[in-house]
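Reopening this one. Same input as before:
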Amino acid sequence: MTFQFEDASRDGTPLLIGLVGASGSGKTFSALRLAKGIQAVRGGKIVGIDTESKRMSHYADRFTFRRLNFGAPFSSIRYLEALQAAVKEAEGGVVIVDSMSHEHEGEGGYLELHEAELDRMAGNDYKKRERMTFTAWIKPAGNRRKLINGLLQMNCAFIFCFRAKEKIKIVRGAEPIPQGWQAIAGEEFSFEMTVRC
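Same output, byte for byte:
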């Protein structure tokens, strides 16, 4: 096998941007503004994967973009298929996913798949369910890894909108420690982002 080397260049380097905020904090509008600036450099189209019943279309009079109405089930594998279709549609431009949080806690998402795996493995036997809890994460975690690995091979800029909620850390015998606003998503996504705001 022959390997081909080339001079490194930032031109066309894919971006992975994560926008994290509470509902109504301006993630969609901010994503579209960022996408417009990125598109000015990269070219291509702006394409949105809209998981929230066409809410992205509130900004159709201010931005030009293509949109996919993406509903449940929100499995990792369906997200991967939608991303592949969106990248093709974007022609090297920018893909916005609004919201990526459904992959984690939405209908058919990561948490529900874990529960379905527990049902399959242990049914209503609660002692068995306790023993199988860790094993039941194998399929959801594998599917999420396929999503992330597939995403990392796509030559496109991405902006992921993540809903957020305030989290606290419980410490035995002490007051809870505020952790601030955290993305509703697997921590694996945080590690892959070029930047997270």
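So the earlier flakiness isn't reproducible anymore. For the record, The helical segments are 27-42, 76-90, 102-105, 110-122, 126-132, 138-151, 187-192.
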